[in-house]
Design brief:
Elements (H helix, E strand, L loop, with lengths): L17 H5 L4 H5 L6 E3 L9 H20 L18 H13 L11 E5 H13 L5 E5 L4 H9 L3 E5 L1 E2 L2 E2 L4 H12 L5 E4 L13 H14 L2 E5 L25 E6 L9 E5 L2 H15 L4 H40 L2 E3 L7 E6 L5 H10 L2 E5 L9 E3 L5 E3 L6 E5 L5 H27 L9
The structure holds pyridoxal-5'-phosphate.
The site of pyridoxal-5'-phosphate has 14 residues, from α5.
């Protein structure tokens, strides 16, 4: 009998499911494998309240030792399975904080769902709601971890233009009419990151947030409000989420996370419309049964007692890192760039035409990383254009997302300076090659 060669792609001894072929590897995951000196790729937190976490963990362990000494079976709790929706203690602390700090109304602990990072909340929401062909509105560019969820599930992304204040909400009514005309369907979901958007770093004004909410009733869509960077805001202005308006808890799925303070804890939390809650928990149960009880115990204390004081020096440091990056980009790169008021990212668009997905490999060889802009545009979606038409989506390949979260200001300054030199040499040499003056290989 003939033996099949499992290495040949044509002769795989199994068949992948449909989504594998239409979903590319997440570029940020790929770049996380590298640790160059000048790391501007994934938004790895670089300022973490480690001493506070040590103190909390020490206290928890002391208490646990006491329980063991007293032969109290509760000492096993943190090592066991817990409720899929999260521990009662953490949900209770978070619901109070969501009311007092974020202004959410009419919610209780039962409205809060704990997930493994907010990425799991995004995926479970999409998984629960999307049927192939459903339309999702978002900005152009948008968070690639969300685009991937939608693409995997066969949803149709339609992007709206954005400016330095984020999504241009005036386009929403016309974009919806254009979707109905073109696809015979209206959008089901609108996804937005109102505070310090990923990748552009933009923050929506109150009037744009209000418009998104009001149109949700007029045009009957659900809002996914991704608040991943709400704790990393440089000014002390009070947070004002869209969810604040959702008094009947029926239009806004509000998502947040603790991962920008401690990524490895992998704890996200959300408040979703009442009628969606059980189905979302059901989906989470299928993925992983529950989140870690140990980590939830740590975060319960963090949110209860420490977070606000802990955030003061953290935000101060990120602000300095952000300033260093913005200044260095201004001096060393030729193009337009965002000036974030929080979060982890500067978005850069070069004045020249080039493909940053090719350039990133050269940067890596020179000890620098960033995330190329292309994956932040849908790979097979649509763009609603300012002239009112819907066209197949087009990525802006001369863009880069530069993260300032991990490195100190001095290293950010030097790294961006090096990136600037490298890019101008690359562009120079590419022009020479394009003009046909000989194929000089790019050397670094
Ligand atoms: C906008 C946005 N949403 C969600 C996530 C997922 O975060 P988490 O680590 O909590 O899963 C990220 C991560 O970078 C993000 O930038």
């Amino acid at each position: 009998m003939e033996t099949k060669n499992p290495k040949s792609a044509d002769k795989l001894p199994f068949q992948f499911s449909d989504w594998v072929g239409r979903t590319e590897e997440n570029e940020i995951r790929r770049l996380l494998r590298y640790s160059p000196k000048y790391y501007f790729a994934g938004g790895k937190p670089g300022v973490i309240p480690v001493k506070i976490f040590h103190e909390i963990i020490r206290n928890l362990m002391d208490e646990e030792t006491q329980l063991i000494t007293n032969q109290n079976p509760a000492h096993l709790n943190n090592y066991n399975y817990g409720p899929t929706e999260g521990s009662n203690e953490l949900r209770s602390v978070l619901s109070k904080r969501l009311i007092t700090r974020d202004g959410l109304q009419n919610i209780t602990k039962s409205d809060v769902i704990i997930t493994n990072g907010s990425q799991q909340a995004l995926y479970s929401l999409c998984d629960t709601l999307l049927t192939p062909g459903d339309i999702i509105l978002t900005t152009r560019p948008s968070y690639l971890g969300f685009l991937q969820c939608v693409e995997k599930l066969g949803g149709k992304i339609v992007t709206l233009p954005s400016d330095k204040h984020g999504m241009i909400t005036d386009f929403i009514p016309d974009a919806i009419s254009a979707c109905i005309k073109r696809f015979r369907q209206k959008p089901k979901i609108l996804y937005t990151i109102p505070y310090s958007d990923n990748p552009q770093g933009t923050t929506l004004s109150d009037s744009r947030k209000k418009a998104i909410f009001d149109y949700a009733y007029e045009f009957d869509y659900l809002i996914f409000e991704d608040m991943a960077y709400k704790e990393i805001q440089f000014s002390n202005k009070k947070i004002s989420p869209i969810k604040k308006n959702d008094l009947y808890n029926e239009k806004v799925a509000y998502l947040s996370t603790s991962t920008k303070e401690a990524a490895s804890f992998r704890i996200g939390y959300s408040v979703v419309p009442t009628k969606l809650r059980n189905e979302m928990i059901k989906a989470k149960g299928i993925y992983d049964l529950c989140s870690s009880e140990w980590v939830q115990a740590i975060l319960t204390r963090y949110y209860d007692k420490y977070i606000d004081d802990a955030l003061i020096p953290i935000k101060r440091e990120y602000k300095q890192r952000c300033n260093a990056m913005v200044k260095s980009v201004k001096e060393n790169l030729q193009g337009t760039y965002s000036k974030p008021t929080g979060g982890f990212f500067v978005w850069f668009k070069s004045n020249d035409t080039f493909d940053s997905t090719e350039f990133v490999d050269i940067a890596l060889k020179n000890n620098i990383s960033f995330v190329p802009g292309k994956p932040f545009f849908p790979s097979a979606g649509y763009d609603y254009q300012e002239d009112g038409r819907i066209k197949s989506s087009k990525s802006e390949n001369n863009t880069m997302r530069l993260s300032y979260s991990l490195l100190k200001p001095k290293d950010i300054w030097v790294g961006i300076e090096k990136l600037g030199h490298l890019l101008s040499t690359y562009l120079q040499e590419s022009k020479i090659i394009r003009r046909g003056y000989g194929g000089i290989p790019f050397s670094v």
